[in-house]
Amino acid sequence: MKTNFLTALHPKILYAALILSSLIGYLEWGNGNHTFLVQAEFDIIRKFFTHSDSIVHPMIALPLAGQMLLVFSLFQNRPHPVVVLTGLLGLGALLWFIFLIGLISLNLKITFAALPFLIVSIIVLYSMRKGGK
Fold first, then answer.
1. How many other CB atoms are found less than 10 A from the CB of residue 74?
2. Helix or strand or coil: residue 33?
3. Cα–Cα distance between 97 and 20 in angstroms, integer?
4. Span 14-55, pLDDT tens digits
5. pTM score, two decimals?
6. Cα angle for residues 34, 39, 42 (degrees, 5° grid)
7. Do 98 and 118 form a contact (C-beta atoms < 8 A)?
């Protein structure tokens, strides 16, 4: 069986790359307001213990749950593909949305900050597809 670079990568390296690349997502809004997703996530986790009702929004809860599923998959010997795909879709919903916002607003910082996650997610999907055959 012929293997290439993408299918030869260890899945856990790809899952860790998904998590890390999701943290560099970038947002700008209003008059000079901006943040990286790692900063926003830290604020969300901090608010979870004080104002838990403020993080119930689907665009907050879904990506956070997806990220938790991906972290969970790092600690399993053989994570189930459904767990990985669910985590990827949950986290991907936010980053694809951010990417589209960057394209629509022609903001290159937002667009390019989302690209690493999108590229790694395509590699993960390709690797899962080719690895399963």
1. 14
2. strand
3. 18
4. 999 999 999 998 988 878 888 888 888 888 778 777 776 766
5. 0.82
6. 145
7. no
